[in-house]
C-alpha cells in the first residue's frame, strides 16, 4: 500500500510541455527523500485541461497542480508529501478554496462534464493492464462470452441507442446486426483511429489514456458478429497512442485476453495495428479498408456495404475509437443506464476537443443535449481577451459554423444537422470577432481540395473551382453573381460525389454563406474584410496625430515600405507593403492601423 | 493528393541499409496488406523513398513498380525527397490556424528561404505544414523532429531556428 499517489499527465499536450521530465524528477526526488516506498508516481492519460498543462494530481487530497515546471517538483515533494502542506501557489486556481482545496469535480470546467468514454483517462496507468482490470476491466468481455449469446449482445447495444461517434451517427447495434447476418467463415472487426479532422484529438486521448477499453470492445464486437481478427487503423502522427496500444495488445495477449480460447471458451480473437500515412480520405470506411489491404486508399462504390463485402472482400464492421470506448460500460451497466443520458435520439455522452479562441482549451465530455452556451461559457471559461463569441465550428472539414444566435442549441446529432453543421468526430473550434468566416471556409476547402483522392470529377474539379471562387472573394475580385454560382456549385458537388469527403466538402462554405452572408458581401461589394484577415483587402496606415516619428516601424519593416523623418509622422508606401504586420506589433503608440 | 516532385539529390544508400530492408521485407511479405508497412519500414531506414528503394520493395514484395509508386505518391507521409536533418512541421490544423499558425508558417518560409516541402541547401532544415498533432490545447504548435513547441508567436521563429543552427 502506498500512502499517496502522484498522477502525472502523459497525454500528448502535457508530454510536449515536459511532463516526462517532471515524472522522472518526481521519481528521483522521492527516492532522495526516502519516500519511494510510500508514494507512487503514475503516468496517466489526458485530464482534459490541456491549456493548463503539465498537470500533476496528488492523492489522497486530490490536489490539482497546473502548469507545473520541473523546478517545482522538489517543492511539491518536500512541502506536500513530506510535510503535508499543499503548495497553494501551484494549484489550479479554481480549486483553491478558503478552507484548503475544492474538489476538481466542483470546478466549472468539470462540473457539467460526465465522463463515460473518458472514465479512466487520467485515472489509471494506461501501460498497466492490472489497473484497467482493477476498474472492472475485461469483465464485460467475460460476461459476454460466458453468459450471453451474440444476438443478445447486439440487442443490448441496439437498445442502448449508441450511435457511431466517428461522424455520421449510424446506430452501432444495427451495423453489427448487418455484419452478423452476413454469412462467411471469415469476418473482420476494424477500429477507425485515423482521426482526420484537423483540430480534434479525442480518439488519441482515449487510446493514450485507456487503450484496453478499445481492445475489450473490439473483442466483444468480434464475438457479436462472429469474427476472429481485428485491425486498428491509426494515424502515424500519434506515436504515443500507437506505443500504448502496442503495449496494451501485448499485455492482453499475455493474459490470454486476446488469442485462442479466451476465458476458456471456444472464442478466438486477435488484433493487429496498421498505421496510416497521412491521407484524410482514409478515414472514410471503404478507403480505410483499401488502405489496410496495402493499396492506394481510394473509396469504393457502396453497395456492397462493408458489412457484406469489406476488408479483403469479407464482411467487416468499422467503428470509431470513442464508439468502442462506450461498449464495455453498456454491457456492464445495462442499456437503460446508457439510454438515460442524452436526448431522445442521441443517447449517452460525446467527447469534444475544445480549441481555438477559448480559455480552457482541452478535452471535455458532456451528455448529449448540453447547449453550446454551456460548453463555451461555463466549461470553456469564455473567450479570452474580452473578445466576443462569433461562431463555433463543429464537424471539421465536413461540418459547419454555428453562429452566436444559435448558441442555445442543445448539441446532438439531429440538431446539428438541422442547423447545417454536423457532429463529426468532435472537434469544436471557437472563433471570435477577429476570425474571418470567408477565410475559414477557404481554409477548410483548401484542406479538402488537397485531400480529395481524385477518383471522381465533382469532388476533384468541383471543389477546386469552388476554392478559386472563394479566392476571388477574399481578394476582392468577386461579383454578387459569383456568390449565387458558388451556392449552386456547392449543391452540385454534394449531390454527385462518390464518397463522404466530396459529399460534405462544401458544407463549410454553405454554412458560412447561410449565417455570415453579409461578411461575404462586404468582401464583394465593399472590397473590405470586416475581421481584418484577408490580406489582399486590408491596408496599413499610420495615424499622423499619434505617430511621434520614432522610426521603430521603419526599421522593422522587412521591405522598407515605411519612410519619414525622425520626429515627424511616418508614412507607409502601400504599393510596397506586404502586409506582414511587423510594424503594428512594434509601435508602442498604437499609431498604425489595418483596415 | 500530394504533388509529384522527384528529387535530384543522388542516392547514397549503403549495402547495410539494403540488407536491413530486405530482411524486414521478407517478414512483411507474409502478412496480408503488407505493402504499406513495408514502405513505412523502408522510409524509416532511408529517411525517404527514392526510386532505387521503391525498386527493392517492388522486387521483394513481388508487386509491380507502378503499384509501389502509386501507393507512395498517394500518401502524404511518403516522401520522394530527402528531408532536412531538422524537420520543421508547423501545424496548420484548425485550432492552430485560428490562432495564427499561418503567419508562423510564412515567417519560417521567409527566414529559411524555402518553400513548403523543401529542404535548405545545407540539408539542415526542411519545412512542412502538418495536420493536427493533437496538441491543440497549446495552439499554435510546431514540431522540430520530436520536439514540440507550443503557444507560439511569429517572434519565436528566429529563436527556434537559431537553437538548431
Ligand atoms: C472523408 C471522411 C473522413 C472520415 N474520417 C474519419 C475519422 O478520422 N475517424 C472516424 O472515426 N471516422 C471517420 N469517418 C467516418 C467513417 O467513414 C465511418 O463512418 C466511421 O468510422 C464509422 O464508425 P462509427 O459508426 O463508430 O462512427 C470519415 C468519413 C469520411 C467520409
Ligand atoms: S468524393 Fe472526392 S475523395 Fe471521395 S471518391 Fe470522389 S474524389 Fe475521392
Ligand atoms: S490543430 Fe494544431 S495541434 Fe491540433
Describe the secondary structure blueprint for this structure:
The complex is a heterodimer of chains A (595) and B (165).
Chain A lengths: L3 E6 L2 H5 L2 H14 L6 E6 L11 E4 L3 E3 L7 H11 L12 E2 L2 E2 L6 H4 L17 H6 L4 H9 L2 H11 L11 H10 L6 E6 L8 H8 L1 H15 L3 E6 L4 H16 L15 E6 L9 H8 L23 E5 H13 L1 H5 L9 E8 L5 E6 L4 H8 L9 E6 L5 E4 L9 H6 L8 E6 L4 H15 L5 H18 L5 H17 L3 H5 L2 H9 L1 H9 L14 E3 L9 H5 L5 E2 L7 E2 L9 H5 L5 E3 L1
Chain B lengths: L14 H14 L6 H12 L4 H11 L3 H10 L11 E6 L2 H5 L2 H12 L12 E6 L11 E3 L2 E3 L7 H8 L1
Parallel strand pairs in B: 1-2
Antiparallel strand pairs in B: 1-3, 3-4
Helix pairs in contact in B: 1-2, 1-3, 2-3, 3-4
The complex binds flavin mononucleotide, iron/sulfur cluster (SF4) and FE2/S2 (inorganic) cluster.
Keyphrases for this structure?
A: alpha/beta; Ubiquitin-like (UB roll); five-stranded mixed beta sheet; four-stranded mixed beta sheet; globular; B: 165 residues; alpha+beta; Glutaredoxin; 2 domains; 7 helices; 11% strand; binds flavin mononucleotide; binds iron/sulfur cluster; binds FE2/S2 (inorganic) cluster
Amino acid at each position: 500500500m502506498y500512502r499517496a499517489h502522484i498522477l502525472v499527465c502523459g497525454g500528448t499536450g502535457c508530454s510536449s510541455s515536459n511532463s516526462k521530465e517532471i515524472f522522472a524528477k518526481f521519481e528521483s526526488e522521492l527516492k532522495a527523500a526516502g519516500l519511494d516506498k510510500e508514494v507512487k508516481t503514475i503516468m496517466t492519460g489526458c485530464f482534459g485541461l490541456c491549456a493548463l498543462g503539465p498537470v500533476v494530481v496528488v492523492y489522497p487530497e486530490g490536489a490539482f497542480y497546473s502548469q507545473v515546471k520541473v523546478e517545482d517538483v522538489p517543492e511539491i515533494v518536500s512541502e506536500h508529501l513530506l510535510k503535508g502542506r499543499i503548495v497553494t501557489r501551484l494549484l489550479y486556481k479554481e480549486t483553491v478554496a478558503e478552507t484548503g482545496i475544492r474538489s476538481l469535480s466542483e470546478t466549472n470546467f468539470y462540473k457539467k462534464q460526465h465522463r463515460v468514454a473518458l472514465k479512466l483517462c487520467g485515472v489509471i496507468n494506461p501501460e498497466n493492464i492490472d489497473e484497467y482490470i482493477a476498474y472492472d476491466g475485461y469483465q464485460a468481455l467475460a460476461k459476454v462470452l460466458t453468459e450471453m449469446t451474440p444476438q443478445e449482445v447486439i440487442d443490448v447495444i441496439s437498445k442502448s441507442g449508441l450511435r457511431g461517434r466517428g461522424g455520421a451517427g449510424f446506430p452501432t447495434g444495427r451495423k453489427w446486426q448487418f455484419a452478423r447476418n452476413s454469412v462467411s467463415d471469415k469476418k473482420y472487426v476494424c477500429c477507425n483511429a485515423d482521426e482526420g479532422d484537423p483540430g480534434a484529438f479525442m480518439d488519441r486521448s482515449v487510446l493514450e489514456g485507456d487503450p484496453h477499453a478499445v481492445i475489450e470492445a473490439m473483442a466483444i464486437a468480434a464475438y457479436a458478429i462472429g469474427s476472429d481478427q481485428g485491425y486498428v487503423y491509426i494515424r502515424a502522427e500519434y506515436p504515443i497512442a500507437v506505443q500504448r496500444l502496442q503495449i496494451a495488445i501485448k499485455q492482453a495477449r499475455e493474459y490470454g485476453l486476446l488469442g485462442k480460447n479466451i476465458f476458456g471458451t471456444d472464442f478466438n480473437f486477435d488484433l493487429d495495428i496498421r498505421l496510416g500515412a497521412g491521407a484524410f480520405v482514409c478515414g472514410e470506411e471503404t478507403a480505410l479498408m483499401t488502405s489496410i489491404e496495402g493499396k492506394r486508399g481510394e473509396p469504393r462504390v457502396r453497395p456492397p456495404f462493408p458489412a457484406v463485402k469489406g476488408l479483403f472482400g469479407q464482411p467487416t464492421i468499422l467503428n470509431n475509437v470513442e464508439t468502442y470506448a462506450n461498449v464495455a460500460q453498456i454491457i456492464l451497466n445495462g442499456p437503460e443506464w446508457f439510454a438515460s443520458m442524452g436526448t431522445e435520439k442521441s443517447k449517452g455522452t460525446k467527447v469534444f476537443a475544445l480549441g481555438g479562441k477559448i480559455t480552457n482549451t482541452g478535452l471535455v465530455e458532456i451528455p448529449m443535449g448540453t447547449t453550446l452556451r454551456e460548453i463555451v461559457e461555463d466549461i470553456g471559461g469564455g473567450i479570452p481577451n474580452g473578445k466576443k463569441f462569433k461562431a463555433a465550428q463543429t464537424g471539421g472539414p465536413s461540418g459547419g459554423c454555428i453562429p452566436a444566435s444559435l448558441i442555445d442549441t442543445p448539441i446532438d446529432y439531429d440538431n446539428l444537422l438541422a442547423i447545417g453543421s454536423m457532429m463529426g468526430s468532435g472537434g469544436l473550434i471557437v472563433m471570435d470577432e477577429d476570425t474571418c468566416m470567408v477565410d475559414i471556409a477557404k481554409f477548410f476547402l483548401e484542406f479538402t481540395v488537397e485531400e480529395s483522392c481524385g477518383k471522381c470529377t465533382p469532388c476533384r474539379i468541383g471543389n477546386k473551382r469552388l476554392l478559386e471562387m472563394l479566392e476571388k472573394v477574399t481578394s476582392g475580385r468577386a461579383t454578387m453573381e459569383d456568390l449565387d454560382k458558388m451556392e449552386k456549385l456547392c449543391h452540385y458537388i454534394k449531390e454527385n460525389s462518390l464518397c463522404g469527403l466530396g459529399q460534405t466538402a462544401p458544407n463549410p462554405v454553405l454554412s458560412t454563406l447561410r449565417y455570415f452572408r453579409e461578411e461575404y458581401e462586404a468582401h464583394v461589394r465593399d472590397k473590405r474584410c470586416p475581421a481584418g484577415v484577408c490580406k489582399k483587402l486590408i491596408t496599413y496606415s499610420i495615424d499622423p496625430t499619434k505617430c511621434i516619428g520614432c522610426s521603430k516601424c521603419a526599421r522593422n519593416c522587412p521591405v522598407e515600405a515605411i519612410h519619414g523623418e525622425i520626429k515627424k509622422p511616418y508614412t507607409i508606401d502601400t504599393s510596397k507593403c506586404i502586409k506582414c504586420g511587423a510594424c503594428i506589433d512594434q509601435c508602442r503608440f498604437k499609431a498604425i492601423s489595418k483596415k | 493528393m500530394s504533388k509529384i516532385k522527384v528529387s535530384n539529390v543522388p542516392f547514397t544508400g549503403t549495402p547495410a541499409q539494403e540488407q536491413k530492408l530486405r530482411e524486414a521485407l521478407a517478414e512483411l511479405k507474409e502478412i496480408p496488406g503488407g505493402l504499406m508497412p513495408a514502405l513505412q519500414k523502408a522510409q524509416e531506414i532511408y529517411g525517404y523513398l527514392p526510386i532505387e528503394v521503391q525498386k527493392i520493395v517492388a522486387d521483394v514484395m513481388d508487386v509491380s513498380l507502378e503499384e509501389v509508386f502509386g501507393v507512395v505518391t498517394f500518401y502524404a507521409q511518403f516522401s520522394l525527397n530527402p528531408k532536412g536533418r531538422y524537420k520543421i512541421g508547423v501545424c496548420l490544423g484548425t485550432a492552430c490556424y485560428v490562432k495564427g499558425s499561418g503567419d508562423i508558417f510564412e515567417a519560417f518560409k521567409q527566414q529559411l528561404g524555402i518553400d513548403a516541402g523543401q529542404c535548405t541547401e545545407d540539408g539542415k532544415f526542411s519545412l512542412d505544414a502538418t495536420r493536427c498533432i493533437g496538441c491543440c490545447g497549446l495552439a499554435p504548435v510546431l514540431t522540430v523532429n520530436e520536439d514540440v513547441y507550443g503557444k507560439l508567436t511569429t517572434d519565436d521563429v528566429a529563436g527556434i531556428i537559431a537553437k538548431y543552427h
